[in-house]
Amino acid sequence: MATKTSHSKTIQKIGVLTSGGDAPGMNAALRSVVRSCAYYKIPCCGITRGYQGMIEGKIKPLGPRSVNNIINKGGTVLKSARSEEFRTKEGRKKAFANLQNNGIDALIVIGGDGSFTGGLIFQQEYGIPVIGIPGTIDNDIYGTSHTIGYDTAMNTVVEAVDKIRDTAISHNRLFFVEVMGRDAGHIALNTGIGAGAEEILIPEEDMGLDRLLDSLKRSKKSGKLSSIVMVAEGDKIGKNVFELAEHIEDNLPDYEVRVSVLGHMQRGGAPTCFDRVLASRMGLKAVEALRDGVSGNMVGMADGKMIFTPLDKAIKGESKIDTELVRVSEIMRL
Ligand code: F6P
Question: Domain limits at 181?
């Protein structure tokens, strides 16, 4: 079915939810949606625990004072979930009934591509206008230069790696640092440059084990006593970060290797100013879109401006890594 990207009805009440992996700045986006609704005098309801909460009827009215003091908070006060039930027709039927019972006739979904897929199917089945706001630390969504949470996560990673560098230098060690990014290397590539990593392994490029070995040999020869290798969790080299470390120790016994997996700490913490501003802009734009008859679209940012991308494109499109950054990282390791 073709995606509907406009609607002609006057919106009576907007429901907002956060879904998928949480990201710092989701609260700022929620605050923006709620206050923008208040500005335009459109009633607004928060749906707890994403689509699962929609199925369970966990819906409550929100006004400007309900979102006091959350702009600086990490996580999502609405809570998030990945709902298996919403993948079924029966689940979505229950969810629609709950929206109807609450008078909600439009949705704003803050999340990643899985969340947008759910929203799109729902819009196609029930004609509920949906607008997506990209919230994920991975930055792996087509149609926006930045997703909400990405900037904060990068700053968290750089801060952690700076600390790892202190201990790496003190012991002349080689550290493998695994960062998030199931399918995307944005975090690894940017923080690798920002934290001065020797090598950066990302899912978009298959660097090969031999090249990694050669590069580490060269770096030792050039006089470097300690190094950081940044590894995206979904890297293509075919080994997990511990196997990689073992392989290097087996083949380059001169190196004393340690592994640090940063894990979910990358998803927490207070959002940066950049993420708060981005979230505030996107929330307002999402409400204005529904008001102006736009639906089935995601709000994004390109060249610093708010733009729209049809949800099906945002879901299917690839958010490519910047090859210029790969070049920068290669030269910086000399
Ligand atoms: O938010 C995106 C992400 O951080 C991925 O990089 C990671 O693979 C995934 O979420 C893990 O999330 P969870 O543990 O919530 O399933």
Answer: 150-267
